Amino acid sequence: MADTQQRPGADGSSAPMGPADIAGLLAGRIGQRRVPAAGSPQPATPPPVSPAAPAAVASAAADGGVGAVPSLAGLPGALPVEWEVIEHLQSVVSTRLSAEDPDKLLEEADRRALARRLVRNAVADWATAYAQGNTPLTTEQEAAVGTAVFDSMYRGGRLQSLLDQDGVEDVMVDGLRAHVEYHDRPRQTIEKVADSHEELITWVNRMARLSGHGERALTQATPMVGFRMPDGSRVTASLLTTRPSVVIRRHRIRQHGIAELVQWGSINPMLERFLTACVHAKMNILVVGDMGAGKTSLLRALGREIPPSERLVTLESDRELYLDEPGPKPGPVTFAFEARQSNGETRGGGAAGEVTISDMFATALRFNATRVIVGEVRSTEIVPMLQAMSAGGSGSMCTLHVRRPHGIISRLVQLCTEAGMQTEAAHHLIASSIDLVVYLTYLDETAVGGQKHRFVSHVYEVHDVVGEGGRPVTTELFAPQGGEIRAVYKNMPSFIDELELTGLMRREWLTDNPYGAWMGPLATVGRR
Prior knowledge:
Low-confidence stretches: 1-67
Number of helices: 16
Oligomer: single chain
Number of strands: 21
Shape: elongated
């Protein structure tokens, strides 16, 4: 991937930043004088620039002497001003925006376009006043300031520069320090992503409001919250850790289909045809794997294969599937349900205002959906999910967190018994509801110079009978063998006739050169 960064300007355009530009950004910063408060005359007169110490070393020394850890202000593309200037300009723009659209009658896109124009004007006014006693900012620097102001209003604010990096998958904030996970290189640790813990908590609550989750506030009454950011990234925050903590799961891919999974090496062409045929044949599919294995990505891709003539309901604790949004091809009529967290109060022995996935099932089924998809089954919602599958919800799908392939049935039974079912009843419900289990393996080699690999390694058929010990009978259809750690054809599914009737699958494809379906060995650094 290219190392050259492109920072979007205040008007949304992109301007490449070369070494000279980056050096210019790091050459100076705002000194100790504070910018006047939002109520002061506009434009505010900026304070003078003071010489900057080497950003990474100075910040690291201030935060404990870890010289190898860069600060947010020391990264390429860093702002030429302190964050307090951005906060001041944000207040100025917000005041002007409220004056021009006091009743918020504009459509969201028009309101953001107006905000961009006001940002450009406010930054230009500020930069003009600043240049009267200091070295003027360059055009690129002004654009970077404008972008930061807009980001603080509508995007990820101070953390947006981390989220915009190529290949970012997770940003984990522990107090004032952030750890950034990438899909193709080792983790990077960044110091000073906020000035205080209070500022970080304020950021969490502002992101929740921007996302339309005003009821989800991080407080002592509700010390754990989860929501999605405006760009779809999933945020989980807590006050129960040693320091306030935030984990942001970045969705790099939202509009992909199953063909892209072949390009990325998650499945091969044979599995693409097989799984697509299973969707069209209305097999009930369970997608499982460890954390970060790509379960949601595969489920989303399978959901995009549902014929447009059908009706779909999705149930999620936090919206991640986006199957109700336009995709690469026409899809079914989709109603996307999202759970709601409690406001922290209790009422009638329960959490006031809380709506769980289990609570939504009854309403969702009244939408006459031909299929139900649950983003992730974590708790007692497993029972209504399996009941919906066994009672006519053919073609339904969900994901489940399972560490090892051999633990799939045990994990299902565990959740069913936690919901109050007897083990024997749970076994029969599982056998009568699930047709196919797809297991994804996650292999992380970034620490040894490689990258993260996510691929299907096992596919099981679950038969509608119970066998020895009362457990459901399963058959390995695809599994690692012959030195190949990815899924290779092993046994013919009992429902192959139904797959062939879709016109998307032929049984001889499974038996003809199954090893070659992966088109080359997995590019791993080393075997574990």
